[in-house]
Amino acid sequence: MMVVSHDTAAGTRPTAGGASGAGAVPQALARVMSFIDPRLERALQLSDDAAPRLLEAMRYSLLAPGKRLRPALVLWAAEACMPASAAEATPIQAWDTAAGAAVAVEMIHAYSLVHDDLPAMDDDDLRRGRPTCHRAFDEATAILCGDALQALAFETLVGSLPAPVAARGLRVLAQASGPEALVGGQSDDLAAERGWLDRSGPEGREEQVAWMERIHRRKTGALFRAALTLGGLAAGANDRQLAALDGYGRAFGLAFQIADDLLDAEGNEATTGKRVGKDAERGKLTYPTVLGLSESRRRAVALAAEAESMLSELPASADDLRHLASWIVTRDH
Question: What's the whole-model pTM score?
Answer without folding.
Answer: 0.89
